[in-house]
Amino acid sequence: MPLLTADRAASAAVRVQELTRTYDAGGQPVTALDGIDATFVRGTFTAVMGPSGSGKSTLLQTAAGLDRPTSGRVFVGDTEMTRLSEAALTRLRRTKIGFVFQMFNLIGALNVEENITLPLRLSGARPDRRWLAEVTHRVGVTNQLHRRPAELSGGQQQRVAIARALAIRPDVVFADEPTGALDSHTASAVLELLRSIVDDHGQTIIMVTHDPVAASYADRVVTLADGRIVADRNQREAEAVA
Amino acid sequence: MTGIALRLLRHRPGSVLATLIALIAGVTILTSMGALVESGLRPLPEPQQYANAEIVVAKRDLTITGKQLGDPYTATVQLPERGSLPAGLADELRKVPGVENVAGNADALTLQASDRVAVEKVAASAGAQVYTGNDRVLVERPDIAEARGLLIEVGGAFGGYVVMLVMFVVAGTIGLSIRSRRRDLALLRATAATPGQVRRMLMAEAAILAVAGSVVGVPAGLLASRWLGEQLVARGFVPADYGLSRGLLAAPAAVLLIVLVALGSALLASRKLSGIRPAEALSQIAVEPARLSKVRLGFGLVALTGAVSSSAVSVGAGGQAALAGAVSMLYLFVLAVALLAPWINGITARYLAPVLRAGWGNSGYLAAKNLAANARGGATVLTALVLSIGFGGSVWFLQDNVERQTVQQLKSGTLAQYTVLTPGEVSVEKLGRIPGVEAVTPMRQTAVIVKVLDTLEVVPAQAIDPAQAKATLDLKVRKGELAAVGPDSIAVSATQAASRGWKVGDEASLWLGDGTPKRLRVAAIYERGLGFGDVVLSTATFGQPPTKLLIRATPDAVPALKAAIGQSATLIPSEQATAGVSKDLAISAWLNKLLITVMIGYAGLAAANTMTVAALARRRELAVLQLAGVTTRQLKRMVHAEQAGLLGVSVLIGGVIAAVTLTAVVYALTGGAVPYVPLAGVLAILGGATLIAMGTTIVPIARLLRQSSLAAAGTRE
């Protein structure tokens, strides 16, 4: 199991230390994360796997600043997220972090272009037209910019969500079961898109999935069970050795 | 954020329409209510009779000053009768340096003066006031002064409650429409909107809707106030030359108020959402936090206690005050229901489960589960239904009860078979000597003024000659003797005695209708205060000429009576006189009834709106159920069962609230323990509530069910 060393931490996109998260479920405390330490290196594609209730979604949400840990620390680049106020945390998210959710993640009232530029608009930034053109071309939604999400197929919706995540040039993209609601053909196209973004642009992606096929596109697979890391496999290196 | 707010609005026409309707109706009502107050406060017309008098001195108001708990206060009322000036006042005024050309009579004096303050001082020592400028018209036109008082009183007493109702409804509708989009907002938060941005977006949205609502509401309100003005003049509430305002000042005030209320409601609702976790956008099902605050429970119980205990206190004398008391009591009850609704819904869902299951099978089972799970969301719906049932079931009937009791008391309290109207100078003694005439009681309808805490209250009264009253009047005397009422004593109604704390033998301080202060002994307490006024004076105390004569006589005395009273007076059977009074009552109750109708209508509209928004927000939930194998028919039955359950609970709670309010107020006013409630009225309210509850849910739900469930489950809420 490759342990993380100090010099690798320097090139970390995201780092979590002794992360715990407990929930109060009807008076009963439930431990979703039980002291997680992990570093996600820049330019890598990591899959987080584990059975239902293993804490993989909670890890993603706390690492992405969507939820706050009970204890422990989260760093995005050099910034410690756990110390930020809700508004400052939001500002950090919309400038440094991109999201792709399982489904239902586009605003139905806005068209494709507006959905893609929404985080930019919310942060008051002027969209970089050339970059947007490149992103939309890259994910293949250039011809659908003025359509509403309801008029798109599931795969197309997910491509728009990826474009939205990339539009802000994020330090890291978090994806929560991005192919969970897609058929296998569409799913593999979306996964290939994610893979190529890592390869071509050096983008960091952390993806939660329970699907081994989806995980096979990643460089590294971290497996959780009962809120702890039970396996951490660098599959690119493994392939190279094999 | 405004751009995004607008886009989001365009995307959910159903709930936007509901909010808009509440806002439009709110602006319309506020504008026309405001026009009434504006009319009451508008500048007076030019005087005619006193056009050339620089200063007019007359006695038209009663003003007192004093200290209540250390705070100085001043209270003024318009005198119910014209006050006359003391004989020596003219000479006193002539002595004031700079005063010239004093002229006039006991009714009013005109003069010129260089020092107004000095004149005021002298006038005040005689209980008179000084009028200059357009105020002079108040001396010559008591009807204008009266109309002014009515407009301000109606605007003040009802205006406040209408404003509260509008605020309640607008806040509820906006709050619900925001809550129903919890998921969308979580998504916005996740895709990088700060809590402040979400709040500003919701406030921008509310402001846009409020302004859009005003665009329709203001013209509608101006039209309504125009119509109202015409009606007020036609029905004799306001003299034709009064010059009612059309609401040009009230309209901007109404718009400002509605925008502020909308902004405030959005702020409040978005504060409630501040606990929203962006992570909720990632989860499949948006679940509202189940935690209910103990603070809410505490406030709910306090409101409930307040409502129950207010029933004893809230009631004042007179129709307007009684209605205001009833409405404030209702509000407390409804506030308590609004606060306690989650618990009420939770408890009823548990007890209703077997009933719904028996009635609707599996659909009923689902309905009970939904009611229990959605105890909090259902709170707004329950409150809206209870509000309209509580309103409909009490204030309307209250007005009816007051009218009915007044006429009833008049009928059974008048023993005299004949009534002479406009008797003028007819000699009572002469009539009494006519063979067949047993008794004649001269009577003058007047009013007295009593001090209540730091205000002055005008109390309806009659001045009678008590000598033969036993044969002509039956006031249902409970204590003392009506015949004992003399120059230094009065009889008072049980209601008035109770609220003033007067007992037989006590001294009562009051002012006569013309402003004369008196200390009079309570000689009797009677029950028929609604029909005959709350105070009975002797003509020896208040010597103004009678407005009617009550005559107990045999029919064969009629020709002689008719001959004796002359041409200017009219003799009619007493039943006919009572019918005339009941007609007058109906006319004076018209304004109350109109305002009540508006309030009930608005409460009903609010209920309809709330339920439509709540129904439209269930698209996703219904789609998920459909995907889980529940058929469209079963879903419809489920919705029916839910609505039947909600309606049943609302009718029960609203009915109890209405009954308690109505009984308390009617008891305090009439002493009758059982209020009169016509069956048709009850059916109308039940039918109306059922129609609203079913129509506003079933139609939108049917529309939702026609859409593809897969698409609905997969997209936004």
Describe the structure.
Chain A: InterPro entries: AAA+_ATPase, ABC_transporter-like_ATP-bd, ABC_transporter-like_CS, ABC_transpr_LolD-like, MacB-like_ATP-bd, P-loop_NTPase. The complex is a heterodimer of chains A (242) and B (717). Chain A is of the alpha/beta class. Chain A has a single domain (42-60, 86-241), classed as P-loop containing nucleotide triphosphate hydrolases (Rossmann fold, 3-Layer(aba) Sandwich). In chain A, 36% of the residues lie in helices and 28% in strands. Chain A has helices at residues 6-9, 56-63, 86-96, 112-122, 129-139, 154-167, 184-201, 212-215, 235-241, and strands spanning 12-25, 28-41, 45-49, 71-76, 79-80, 97-100, 172-176, 204-208, 220-225, 228-234. Chain A starts with 5 loop residues before the first helix and ends with a helix. Residues 284-288 of chain B have low confidence and may be disordered. Chain B folds into four domains: 1-45 and 140-289, no CATH class; 55-131, no CATH class; 293-410 and 581-717, no CATH class; 423-568, no CATH class. Chain B is built from 22 helices and 15 strands. Chain B has helices spanning 2-10, 13-41, 89-94, 116-125, 137-140, 142-179, 182-190, 195-234, 250-272, 294-313, 319-373, 378-413, 428-432, 469-472, 494-500, 529-532, 558-565, 574-616, 619-627, 632-670, 679-706, 709-714, and strands at 55-68, 71-83, 100-104, 108-112, 129-131, 418-421, 437-452, 455-464, 477-480, 489-493, 507-511, 517-526, 535-538, 548-553, 570-573. Chain B is α+β, with helices and mostly antiparallel strands and 717 residues long. The two termini of chain B are 21 Å apart. Classes of the chains: A alpha/beta (242), B alpha+beta (717). Chains A and B meet through helix 3 and helix 4 of A and helix 1, helix 7 and helix 8 of B.
Q: How would you name the oligomeric state of the polypeptide chains in this document?
A: heterodimer
CATH architecture of chain A: 3-Layer(aba) Sandwich
Please state the structural category of chain B.
alpha+beta
Counting H and I runs of at least 4 residues, what is the number of helices of chain A?
9
Membrane topology (chain B): Multi-pass membrane protein
Main location (chain B): membrane
InterPro entries (chain B): ABC3_permease_C (IPR003838), Macrolide_Exporter_MacB (IPR050250)
Subcellular location (chain B): Cell membrane
